[in-house]
Amino acid sequence: MRVLEIASEAIPFAKTGGLADVAGALPAALARLGCEVTLVIPGHREALDRGLAIEPAGIGFDVPVGARRVPARILRATVPGGHDALLVDNPEFFDRPALYGDYADDAARWMFFARAAAELSARLGAPFDVVHCHDWQAGLVPALLKILPPLVPAATRTVMTIHNMAYQGSFPASDMPLTGLDWRYFNWRQMECHDRVNLLKTGLVFADLVTTVSPTYAREIQSAPGGCGLEGVLATRSGTVAGIVNGIDTAAWDPRNDPHLPRPYGPDDARLGKLAGGIALFSRLGAAPPDGRPVVAFVGRLAGQKGVGLVVDLLHRLAGSGRVRFVILGTGDAHWEGELGHAAAEHPGAVHVSLGFDEGLAHLVQAAADLLLVPSLYEPCGLTQLYAQRYGTLPVVRATGGLVDTVIDVSPETVREGSASGFVFPHVDAGELERAVIRGLDAHADGELWQRLVRQVMGLDWSWDTRAREYLRLFERTCSQPPQPVES
Questions:
Q1: Do residues 320 and 445 share a domain?
Q2: Together in a domain, 233 and 358
Q3: From edge to edge, which strands make up the β-sheet containing 423-425?
Q4: 397-410 pLDDT, tens per residue?
């Protein structure tokens, strides 16, 4: 199967979030399954400045963007993993200090990228079986491939993957000519939403298959508020909406071979490995060494959506109990950074806050922690809970999105079954989070139970190879079915 992956960012080239992890790892995993995969991303300044092996591909063409013809030069990169990566280079649009930034020409730059990627699909040899588009930045591609004079054969299928419904690529109606499509498609059934061009909606309407990053999130987005205004569109396509949980890079996140840890460990010696990690972590934070109290951590973006308000309340509820030490690592909203700083000042020795982000320190926190807080208000998939399990750390999560699909609540029944993998609380409520954490602390106090839980979660398979097989099955099913019809 020939697969073209189109995304706005991908490791190792450029990253702002989980999309880059998916777009970097999934093509390699599909290639390992025998697919012929090509990845297309923009030629961001960040990508070109990383010192990677990138060279001209010998492909160049002009892209219509409204009344303009904008040049696209295609670069080729060598990617470990057995697939090609092509970068759409145009300094006017992508030689910028940040990948995203509410730039005044965002409509033009992303419509240019989508059109260039669509054109590439017809210039790269044999036809692709699947063109896989990620998030709104590639949302125009399925429409271009369906509507324009055939760029690809009728047998090619398009797949649209949603990583976060909250980001939709909505632009003024006056930007419609930049798409290169007729105004008749600017209607409530196809590209228009609240009198604006909506690129995510465009992808959802025209793609042959819609996927998102967990089965529960796939259900949540088909009704309000999860659909963020597009729930009606998704509900009409419910038969072609599927959810696949993201994988993780099990080579980069492996406590047995992690260069960031002072002592690698596996399920059999996790206690000693975590003790060594705790000694190293608290030394790096300038704090007293481990003293037997369980370590509860939060690692991630300091934003309301991530439930940081619940974390702040939890600190004030439990930090003075003498039962636990908290470690917070992240950066984000200045308000929450300030609130966490106040909590650390009020509870010295019990609350340790490191503002900023350091990949090595994130690994060390995961290794040292006993419980990891993931109290998100909503979470399409989430990765930190998967990293935690890999490191023998039990996640404490709210029952939403991918957190539901990856964490099974600890109970007498799930412990007996061997399926227990964390502590789940149902509602956005600080008291419920506190009770879930206390359940975790009580379980930690039972040494035999805790070691059993640690072994269970470290044995879970969140590899991309498993996830890629699920994508491949969906691709094969989609290719065997009629294409999504286009209303004219």
A1: yes
A2: no
A3: 351-355, 325-332, 295-302, 371-374, 394-398, 423-425
A4: 999 999 999 999 99
